[in-house]
Specification:
The protein has 477 residues and is of the alpha/beta class. The protein folds into 2 domains: 140 residues, Cobalamin-binding domain (Rossmann fold, 3-Layer(aba) Sandwich); 299 residues, Alpha-Beta Horseshoe (pyruvate-formate lyase- activating enzyme). The protein contains 18 helices and 15 strands. It has a 7-stranded mixed beta sheet, with helices on both faces.
């Protein structure tokens, strides 16, 4: 039996970690989770007491800096093996050159982690494990990527006990599920184009679980954990309309709980929206990104028109579904007029839960490279605050106004008559009042768009607000 410990600094359940944990436990290995939001010394002592064979860190870009710091403190106390997995090492495997890291796992981690654990258990060398890079005798071993998992039904259901058994405050009436993996689109602000290149000739990027498999998991969680709302977190839930039609029919009959999903405005039609509504879909999320159609399609390569956004909003209203929109301010080359258009389109379509972030140019994305080439980066992407919500590193003569408008975005959308006042307020220096105004609106949208209780939101929010919103290395969401 190998002993594996996962460590993170966000009070949040990562599906990827839960999938890895489930397959490890299925094969007899021990898995433990540590959420370190304070008292790092106590966490280090507890980790050392378990004598882990492998300490894993799920890492997004930005969060990896905290992980490096914590791993360094841990390795000073015990000679453990540290493995980084998740988005950052997938696209930036050279992070293995950092002295704190022994292994990086790229992309899907279930079978690579299991292979390493099995070989540790048998005392075998594991440095040939595909998907992983290793340090060995002063050299870096770079193994190829294995094909993507095509039959997702072969994976055991995520190990939800991993989190809630030790951190019961994470047990919520709303839980996250996925019907498939992969996204076929190439938005310039996203990593998908890079993933497509990585997996050329290695299997289909977009894959689905069977509807029956998804329904079985939902009902298992419903029976064990008092589930009240299902959140289908697929990047674009309506991508395969035949699959969605089957899901809607079986879900209504066999589950019968309210659910939430993400869609694209250009892929929805009345038939699919009606099916979702009849199946119990209460809230829908989709990206507007920007009110400037030119920026949305030329710069962001979203390929969604204003007309399509207005059409889907009207359909959702017709069938009684509330919607949350995703928006960005501080885009390269964005003007104040463009930003005001983003507020305006959301107000006109009646967005129920306006959600707005500051554009963060994650390295490796097409848009980050564009910003770099144009000399628009005002700070290093690698050292900037990773939060989507605090500040912008994009150079702009209107940076102050754009940063402030992001904090007040919700109010401009929900109360359009306040825009003349907001246009005056955003000229002021960024301040704690704007931060608190944003935090209040963010909490309101999060609470109601995701069908949470106030207790559930507060119990997690108070543990995340410092790292999530104010501090460097704290994470994003």
């Amino acid at each position: 039996m190998a002993r594996i410990v996962f460590v993170q600094n966000m009070a949040f359940e990562y599906l990827g970690v839960m999938y890895i944990s489930s397959i490890l436990k299925k094969h007899g290995h021990m898995v433990e989770m540590f959420i370190v939001t304070n008292n790092e010394e106590k966490a280090i002592e507890e980790i050392i007491s378990l004598e882990p064979d492998l300490v894993g860190f799920p890492c997004m870009t930005g969060v990896h800096r905290w992980a490096l710091s914590f791993a360094g403190k841990l390795k000073k106390r015990t000679p453990c093996r540290v493995i980084f997995g998740g988005a950052h090492p997938t696209y930036f495997p050279d992070v293995i050159n950092e002295p704190e890291i022994d292994i990086v796992c790229r992309s899907e981690g279930e079978y690579p982690t299991l292979e390493i654990a099995n070989k540790i258990d048998k005392g075998l060398d594991f440095s040939d494990t595909m998907n992983c890079w290793f340090k060995s005798n002063g050299k870096i071993i770079k193994n190829e990527l294995r094909p993507l998992i095509q039959n997702l039904d072969e994976l055991p259901f995520p190990d939800r006990e991993l989190y809630i058994k030790k951190y019961p405050y994470l047990k919520r009436s709303q839980r996250v599920f996925i019907g498939g993996r992969g996204c076929p689109f190439d938005c310039a602000f996203c990593f998908n184009h890079a993933l497509t290149k990585l997996y050329k000739n290695k299997g289909n990027i977009v894959r689905y679980r069977s509807v029956d498999n998804v329904i079985a998991e939902i009902n298992e969680v419903k029976n064990k954990h008092g589930l009240k709302t299902v959140y289908m977190q697929d990047d674009t839930f309506i991508l395969n309309k035949k699959w969605v039609a089957e899901f809607a029919e079986k879900y209504k009959r066999k589950v019968g709980l309210p659910f939430i999903c993400l869609i694209r405005a250009d892929m929805a039609d009345e038939e699919i929206i009606k099916k979702l509504s009849e199946a119990g879909c209460k809230n829908v999320f989709f990206g507007v990104e920007t009110g400037s159609e030119d920026l949305r399609n030329s710069l962001l390569k979203k390929k969604v028109s204003d007309e399509e956004i207005r059409y889907i909003a009207a359909l959702l209203k017709k069938y009684g579904m509330n919607f949350r929109t995703y928006n960005m301010l501080g885009l390269p080359g964005e003007t104040l007029e463009d930003a005001f258009k983003t507020v305006s389109i959301n107000a006109k379509i009646g967005t129920d839960y306006p959600w707005c972030a500051l554009f963060h140019p994650f390295p490796g994305t097409e848009l980050a490279e564009y910003a770099k080439e144009k000399g628009l980066l005002g700070a290093s992407v690698d050292t900037a605050n990773p939060s989507f919500f605090k500040d912008s590193i994009i150079k702009s003569e209107h940076k102050r106004e754009l940063v402030n408008l992001q904090k007040l975005f919700f109010y401009g959308v929900k109360f359009p008559g306040s825009m003349p006042l907001i246009k005056r307020l955003i000229r002021l220096r960024p301040n704690i009042i704007f931060d608190l105004a944003f935090l209040a609106s963010y909490g309101w949208c999060y609470l109601f768009s995701e069908n949470l209780t106030i207790r559930e939101m507060v119990s997690v929010g108070v543990r995340n607000v410092k790292g999530f919103f104010f501090s460097k290395g704290g994470g994003v969401a």
